[in-house]
Amino acid sequence: MVSSYGIGQFHIGRLKKGEDLLRGLTEVVEKKNVRMGVLFAIGALSSCTFAYYDQVKKEYRERFLEKRVEILSLIGNVSLREGKPFIHAHILIGDESGIWGGHLLEGSKVFALEYHIVELVGSPLVRVFDPETGLFLWNF
Ligand code: ZN
Q1: What range does the domain containing 86 cover?
Q2: What is the pTM of this model?
Q3: Residue 101: which CATH number?
Q4: Which residue, 10, 49, 115, 120, has fewest beta-carbon neighbours within 10 Å?
């Protein structure tokens, strides 16, 4: 299963201190009308909310870390879910005491953030519910 795209605009920017990380990135893709894309970001957070997916119970286990951490890596994509641009991103964070990471959720507070969003040109992929995994996956 593969779709191929051309490269559109490359958006580079930063979010402000105190902004919600996932909401802030979603506002950028909505404003720039990115319907299909890839994104990367680095920076620092003053708290982070993420999850991992329990494949047996088919549910997300949420975790909230009230910690000042570096974003070691944030990678994700943009596609459509229910007709709107939807970001699926995973984050790796750390400080001097350890490294954590998972599926990024709303509820992460930005200290500083630099993002890079690459728009892909072509027919956007659409997320639909997949009963086998319990996830909203791309419908090819
Ligand atoms: Zn995920």
Answers
A1: 20-122
A2: 0.96
A3: 3.30.1330.80
A4: 10
